[in-house]
Design goal:
Length: about 475
């Protein structure tokens, strides 16, 4: 076993070895976090690649609790050389499912889905899908039918990336998948609305090639070579998408693993704009074998910071004792008025770190720290609105607010305007507020808006009550 580190943050963005937790893992490549057993605590799961050991090995789950994480509170899910892991409720039963990408010699189980349930995870409740998946599993509703789809890619030059279409059940199969044209050899993927047209776009990286692709989406969730942009990524496994400079356009961070065999690399940031990304808006930052990244305001000064994860440093052939070493520093580049600078960084000791967790902070479309939940439609008849109440936890400056829309028919709700107590553009921000409903309406729907100050701390909404009289 090797050690993985959790560096605990504080208000100043200080990360040090004095405030970190060390957890055993087996050469892990990826991790994911979520409340797997619905007990209110975040659990942590490692995708154990076991690069130098037996590939058919256990992927550790560290169960969260009041006492924190420990080896004494650990279980495992078996996989074969798992390189990536993601969490989502694929079958919409209220329990998180676990998706592994495996470098598996069995072509039928390159992807493993462990289905969550009341009794936890069992090997008899799992689904295997073909493909030797690489990187982090990408999960999103790509065809806008309300169900989660799964993007699977392969580094093999003769195998394209595919989309397994979800239907809200456990029916993910080769009979419900679509190959993405021209995507052979993809090793990573990410999803966002880069061109702000309301549709999700798909980024496919190719670590074994100098370039990667952006496939621009459409209303049907189809991706084609005709709507594809190629950009130079050098050797990038996975990207991070965020509006780093806060200009309203999403930017793309490409950690560079190596260049012509050299691990002393220059990782790339493409700044987005109306015309997409290009070399005209490119920033290069030093890394040592960049394998992952994250954008966040770690020190709460109002500027986005950039974490670049380093895997390995190169030695200096001109210095005695200067060897290639997996013990190297990952870097936080502190943001500021003048952007990122090489003389304004924080070094974080890491040891052979692989990848990040593959999930960017913020909404999957625009990376804003806001998520909307739309309720089902309710018929309230000839009554009028009385109150709107809710129960929610709002830690660390997070916020919940509401809007409603009404119509005389259920079908009419789709074209109705969302309103608050002062009409369109306003929100119900205090529980117990008077619920405003216009004359002639008999159907209502509410929208809960969940907002975070930093992308990490969100409200927890447990109950909503609409009262009528």
């Amino acid at each position: 076993e090797s050690l993985s580190y959790i560096y605990w943050g504080n208000a100043k963005g200080e990360f040090s070895v004095k405030h970190r937790t060390e957890l055993p893992a087996v050469e892990p490549y990826n991790w994911a976090a979520g409340d797997l057993n619905n007990d209110g605590y975040v659990d942590l799961i490692f995708a154990n690649m076991a690069e130098v050991g037996r590939h058919n090995t256990e992927n550790f789950i560290y169960w969260g609790g009041k006492e924190g994480f420990s080896k004494a509170r650990r279980t495992a899910l078996v996989g074969d050389a798992c390189k990536g892991v993601s969490l989502a409720d694929l079958d919409r039963d209220g329990y998180l499912d676990v998706v592994f990408y495996c470098q598996n010699p069995n072509p039928k189980t390159g992807v493993l889905i462990y289905w969550g349930g009341k009794e936890g995870f069992v090997t008899t409740e799992r689904t295997g899908l073909p493909n030797d998946g690489d990187g982090t599993p990408t999960i999103a509703d790509l065809n806008y039918d309300g169900n989660l789809d799964l993007v699977v890619h392969s580094k093999r030059a003769d195998r394209p990336a595919v989309i397994y279409w979800g239907d809200g059940t456990r029916n993910y199969s080769v009979f419900r998948r679509t190959a993405i044209p021209g995507s052979e050899g993809a090793t990573g993927s990410e999803v966002a609305d880069l061109n702000r047209d309301g549709y999700l776009d798909l980024i496919l990286t190719r670590r074994l090639k100098p370039t990667s692709f952006i496939y621009y989406g459409d209303a049907r969730g189809t991706f084609s070579v005709d709507r594809r942009q190629e950009f130079v990524s050098v050797e990038t496994q996975g990207v991070t998408v965020a509006d780093i400079d806060k200009d309203g356009w999403l930017d793309v961070v490409c950690p560079v693993y190596k260049y012509k065999g050299n691990r002393a690399t220059l990782s790339r940031i493409y700044f987005g704009g109306p015309d997409g990304i290009s070399n005209k808006s490119l920033l290069l930052l030093p890394t040592n074998g960049g394998t992952g990244s994250q954008v966040a305001d770690y020190n709460h000064d109002g500027y986005n910071d950039l974490l670049l994860i380093s895997h390995r440093s190169d030695g200096d052939p001109n210095k005695i004792g200067s060897l290639s070493e997996h013990e190297t520093d990952s870097l936080i580049y502190w943001g500021g008025k003048d952007g990122f600078r090489t003389d304004r960084t924080l070094k974080i000791p890491t040891r052979g770190a692989h990848f990040d967790n593959g999930v960017d902070l913020g909404n999957i479309y625009d990376r804003k720290f806001r998520f909307d939940y739309e309720s089902v439609a309710y018929e309230y008849g000839d009554r009028s609105g009385d109150r709107i109440d809710w129960r929610a936890e709002t830690p660390f400056g997070s916020k919940v607010s509401f809007q409603v829309r009404t119509a005389s028919t259920k079908n009419g709700l789709a074209s109705a305007k969302w309103t608050g107590p002062g009409g369109e553009g306003t929100y119900y921000e205090e529980a117990g507020s008077r619920l405003m409903t216009p004359a002639g309406s008999t159907w209502i729907q509410y929208r809960a808006v969940l907002e975070s100050p930093d992308g990490a701390d969100f409200p927890v909404l447990s109950e909503v009550v609409l009262s009528f009289r």
